[in-house]
Design a protein that fits this description.
Elements: E1 4-14, E2 28-37, E3 40-45, H1 47-53, E4 58-69, E5 71-77, H2 91-103, H3 109-125, E6 128-134, H4 139-152, E7 155-159, E8 161-162, H5 175-189, E9 195-201, H6 209-221, E10 226-231, H7 235-244, H8 253-256, E11 265-269, H9 275-284, E12 287-290, H10 292-297, H11 305-311, E13 314-317, H12 329-342, H13 349-363, E14 381-384, H14 390-396, H15 402-412, E15 418-423, E16 426-427
Helix pairs in contact: 3-4, 4-5, 5-6, 12-13, 12-15, 14-15
C-alpha cells in the first residue's frame, strides 16, 4: 500500500464550530486537494501546492466528489449488531426481549469475533472510521472488538459493560469482578496502537451503589480514560431510577454521588434533563451524545440540540446501534435534522457534517487526532459521491452551492454514497 498519496476533490474541513456566531457554512472551508503520508495528513490546498509538497505522490482524482473526515460514531453497542431493527418495544422491554438474550452469546469468543468483524465491516462500508462502543459483561467481547480494530488500524474506544443487578443470570457480574475485569482489560488495551478503553457502567438501574462506587474508584485511578453510560433516555426509565435511588436529587446524581461525573464522561441520550443536571454537566465539560434514530425508533423523545448547544454543552452524534435503526451516520444526520424540525430548530448541513465528524471527535476528546482534515491529523477520510442515486443526482444537479449539493446526500444517502474510505492513510474500501 502506498505510504503517501494525494487525493483531489472538494476537500471539506472546519475552522470552528458552526454552532457559534456567524453563518454555519462560514465555519467550513473547501480546498482542492489533501496530501497523506504515513497515516497522517501532511497538507491541504491547491493540487499544485500538494504536488510541490509531495512530488512523488500518486494523485487520486475525485474531482466531482466530497472528501471529508471519516465519520465518528460516539455511542454504539456493537454486540447488538445482529438484532438491530427489532420490532415494537420501549427501552426496558426492548432490553429484556432482544438485547439481553443476544448479549448472553458474547461469552463465546468465536461468536464475539464474528460479530465484531461484521460490525466493523458494516460501519466502514458506511463511512465510519471511529466508534465508541459498549461491549457486554464478558471480557471476550472486549478482546474481540479491540483485536478486530487493531488488525484494521482503526482508532476506537470500547469497554466491558458492567451490570450487577436487574439483568438476567449470566449477564451479571459483581462490584468486585466488574472492577477487576475492567481494570485488567484497561491495562491490556488502553493506549495500545489506536485503541482506548472506556469505563462502562451500563446505566444506574443495572448497577448497585457498590458497583457504581467501584467504577468511580477505577475512573479516579485512570483519569485519562473515558467513562460511558446512559442518562435520561425515557420517562419510565427515569421513574425507575427514582425508585431505585430515592435519596438522589435526580438521575445524574446517581452517577455524581459515586464519582462518575467528569469532563471525560459520555452520557448517551440526555433527553429529559432537569436544570440542575444541565448545569452540572456543563460545569464539568461532560459530553452529551445525541442518538436520533434510536430516540425515534424506541419512542424515547426529542433531544434539545439547539438549547443545549446555546448553553455551551459538548455534544456528539451517534447511531446507538442496535437501538438505533441504522449503521449509517448519513441516516443519523438525517434523523437529527428531522428531530430539529420537530423542535422548530432545523440544523444546517454544515452543522450536521460537523456533528458527525469534529463534534463527535471532540465529545470523545479526540478532536486533535480525528474528525477533521488538517495538517498533523490522522488520515481517516471518507469520499462521498454526491450523486450516488438517480434521486439524489437529479436534486444535487440543481444545487446553487456546495451545501445545497451535500444536503440531499445527508437526507437520502446510504452506503452507495460512500465512494472510498481511508483509515490511517490506507484505503479501506
Amino acid at each position: 500500500m502506498t505510504a503517501e498519496i494525494i487525493l483531489k476533490g472538494q476537500v471539506l474541513a472546519f475552522d470552528r464550530s458552526p454552532f457559534g456566531e456567524g453563518a454555519p457554512q462560514d465555519a467550513a472551508k473547501v480546498t482542492e486537494a489533501v496530501a497523506l503520508r504515513d497515516g497522517k495528513i501532511t497538507g491541504t490546498g491547491t493540487l499544485e501546492d500538494m504536488r510541490t509538497l509531495q512530488p512523488t505522490s500518486k494523485v487520486v482524482d475525485h474531482s466531482d466528489k466530497l472528501i471529508t473526515a471519516g465519520f465518528v460514531d460516539a455511542h454504539v453497542h456493537y454486540p447488538q449488531t445482529a438484532m438491530i431493527a427489532s420490532w415494537g418495544k420501549r427501552l426496558i422491554d426492548w432490553l429484556n426481549s432482544y438485547t439481553f438474550p443476544e448479549e448472553m452469546r458474547f461469552g463465546d469468543r468465536a461468536y464475539a469475533d464474528e460479530i465484531a468483524n461484521r460490525y466493523l465491516d458494516l460501519t466502514v462500508a458506511n463511512g465510519t472510521t471511529t466508534v465508541c462502543s459498549f461491549c457486554t459483561i464478558h471480557p471476550e467481547s472486549v478482546d474481540a472488538i479491540f483485536t478486530a480494530a487493531q488488525a484494521r488500524g482503526q482508532r476506537i474506544v470500547a469497554g466491558k459493560t458492567c451490570m450487577d443487578r436487574n439483568a438476567p443470570e449470566g449477564l451479571r457480574d459483581t462490584a468486585q469482578t466488574g472492577y477487576d475485569d475492567s481494570k485488567a482489560l484497561l491495562q491490556k488495551w488502553h493506549g495500545v496502537d489506536r485503541l482506548s478503553y472506556a469505563i462502562t457502567p451500563r446505566f444506574s438501574p443495572t448497577s448497585t451503589p457498590e458497583q457504581l462506587q467501584a467504577m468511580g474508584a477505577l475512573w479516579a485511578e485512570h483519569t485519562d480514560c473515558l467513562m460511558q453510560t446512559h442518562l435520561s433516555e425515557q420517562t419510565d426509565e427515569i421513574e425507575w431510577v427514582k425508585s431505585l435511588f430515592p435519596q438522589a436529587r435526580d438521575y445524574l446524581d446517581t452517577y455524581e454521588e459515586f464519582g462518575l461525573l467528569g469532563a471525560r464522561g459520555l452520557y448517551g441520550h440526555a433527553i429529559y434533563l432537569e436544570d440542575r443536571e444541565r448545569d452540572r454537566l456543563r460545569e464539568h465539560g461532560a459530553s452529551l451524545i445525541h442518538c436520533p434514530t434510536s430516540n425515534t425508533f424506541i419512542g424515547s423523545g426529542l433531544f434539545d440540540m439547539a438549547g443545549l448547544m446555546a448553553e455551551g454543552h459538548r455534544i456528539g452524534l451517534a447511531t446507538d446501534t442496535g437501538g438505533g435503526s441504522s449503521f449509517s451516520m448519513l441516516r443519523t444526520m438525517a434523523a437529527a435534522y428531522e428531530i430539529g424540525q420537530l423542535r422548530g430548530t432545523p440544523l444546517h448541513a454544515a452543522q450536521l457534517m460537523w456533528l458527525a465528524t469534529q463534534g463527535s471527535a471532540a465529545s470523545l476528546r479526540m478532536d486533535d487526532k480525528v474528525g477533521n482534515i488538517a495538517v498533523g491529523m490522522e488520515a481517516d477520510l471518507v469520499v462521498l459521491d454526491l450523486a450516488s442515486t438517480p434521486a439524489i443526482s437529479q436534486r444535487s444537479d440543481r444545487a446553487s452551492d456546495l451545501w445545497e449539493a451535500i444536503f440531499p446526500t445527508i437526507m437520502m444517502g446510504d452506503d452507495r454514497a460512500i465512494a472510498e474510505v481511508w483509515i490511517a492513510g490506507k484505503q479501506a474500501s
